[in-house]
Amino acid sequence: TCDTGDQQTTAAVHLKEPAATIVERLKDVATHEGEDAVFECRLSQETAQDAQWFLGDVPLQSNEMNEIRVQGTRHSLILRKVTLEDCGSVSFKVGQLSSAA
Question: How far is CA 52 from CA 4, 9, 34, 77, in A?
Fold first, then answer.
């Protein structure tokens, strides 16, 4: 706001979060049944948008079988003690971005 006594004007500042890009895509993982499978994806910047991991079409959440971590720009998924039923596509999505392995 600028106030000269008899006149006043006001303006506002609006910020948009710049679009992130995927700088390190998911890589295929081969492991043995009963071992952990680790997937990592790195973005160009930290983002406030919610990221989501999928096994096939099923969205994953952190629990005793899946560990989801975010450390700055690095997003990781650990599938604990995988079984043959865990074989398939793993994907990471944030905003309009996605990567699969």
Answer: 51, 44, 24, 10
Question: Domain residues of the chain, as ranges?
Answer: 22-100
- Contacts (Cβ under 8 Å, ≥6 apart) of 46: 72, 73
Classify domain 22-100 by CATH number: 2.60.40.10
pLDDT in tens, the chain (101 residues): 888 888 889 888 887 767 788 999 999 999 999 999 999 999 998 876 788 999 999 999 999 999 999 999 999 999 999 999 889 999 999 988 899 99
